[in-house]
Amino acid sequence: MDLHERARARCHWLPDLTGRTGARYQVLVDQLAADIASGQLKPGDRLPPQRLLADALEVTIGTITRAYREAERRGLVEARVGSGTRVKGTTEQPPDFHHLSRAGHDSIDLSLSIPIPNPLRQQQLAAILQQIASLPTAIESALTYQPEQGSPLQREQLCQWLNAQGLMLLPEEVILTEGGQHADFLALQALIKPGEAVASAALTYPGMIAAARQLGLKHIPVPMDREGIRPEALERLCQQQRIRLLYLMPEYNNPTGLSMSQQRREAIVEVARRHDMLLLEDGVQFVTPDLRGTPLFELAPERALYIFSASKLLSGGLRFGALRAPSNLMPQLRVALRAQCWSSPGLMGAVTCQWLAKGHADPLLHWHWDEVRTRQKLLHEVLGQYNLSSHPCGFHGWLQLPEPWRAADFVKLADSRGVTLIAAEPFCVGTQPAPQAVRICVTPPASRERLQEGLERLAQLLHDEPPLMPPLL
Questions:
Q1: Using CA atoms, how far apart are residues 396 and 118, in angstroms rounded to an integer?
Q2: Residue 88: what pLDDT?
Q3: Rounded to an integer, what distance in angstroms lies between the CA atom of residue 174 and that of residue 322?
Q4: 435-438 own/partner pairs: CB under 8 Å, 24+ apart
Q5: CA 376 to centroid of chain Cα atoms
Q6: Which of 131, 284, 380, 414 can pair with 309 through a Cys bridge, CB separation 3.0 to 4.6 Å?
Q7: What SS3 class is residue 252?
């Protein structure tokens, strides 16, 4: 029995490709889809190892690798380190993260990173809508198709406001998007090919994790320290494989609240230049100018992209954001955005830019930042004796639980006491083990008193310690 016969005998799934025309990897994926549809392959079934199937079909391992990647991109299979490539289930899986509250009616929700509730927000929005309605030119502009890059007037207005915040952006280097998540997805889709590698901190924004997975990208976790991504660890990873883009949050990481020093930012830029890697800086977790470090697009304008969103400042429901990019990348971004949605909605842009322009939003934003700082102080007053990290402008804190607490148990018991939290799992890249930690958001409660009540319940829970586990033999 030769090598190919032995390989065929060991394959529990062996597609018949005889008489089929077209690229071999595509034919293989089509047959895989047909076998799943017919029930020959069931959810959870493991596909043969790539080398084994290549020997059995007498094709190159590159053909099998490409086929498995295409099958994963089409949602037919999922690959996990240590468990191989398996057929995906047909039932819809719950999302790894959420943007709507799961808290019960009486629960104190500390799970969502959202602006602090304030009636002034609704009052200002109503006034802005009335202003737009009174201007025939504004109404006409909002009803017409916009250029792919966005309205020139809106880009000019947005950049004027951002310049006043210390972010020196030019209208021609900005493309308007439908929020920060859209900007993230747009950058990955336009600039990174399926199967290529991107990297981020080992603990990062779940929206980035979801976008990379949806696009079939290889997402590599980078080890962290007290300033986030470690440059020497990033350097080692770049020496081992080609990483096309690094996603990061220098001002404060979501979820850990860690900030990067100027030295750390410069070190990461040096690694990026050595290995010709793009930098995608997520600035959605906006901070005030006095606490902001040097943005990466100032340190490396030729390779750094920057994401802005109005979600944390005005309202997540507006779905308005922007992506700064080097001029040589803008054509690719415009083409990708045109294919997705043609352009960002003119009305959303008109509302947001008018709201930010001429100081209309200033009273709300000044109150917002003062209130966030006060709530951060309250967080540290109640839980500061524990391993807690956060940013003065941060919407959340990161609590590393003392032993013998397990994060899943803590979240469950907190829920039983009327406090809703998120544990670390949704923030973990790939198969990274989740730390025993929880994210505590200080912004969802409408009042400080309600926030303090929730924090004190958590403090009492930590004081009580977890219930003893039954003995096991």
A1: 18
A2: 83
A3: 6
A4: 435/203, 435/400, 435/407, 436/400, 436/401, 436/405, 436/406, 436/407, 437/255, 437/398, 437/399, 437/400, 437/401, 437/407, 438/398, 438/399, 438/401, 438/407, 438/410, 438/411, 438/414
A5: 23
A6: 284
A7: coil
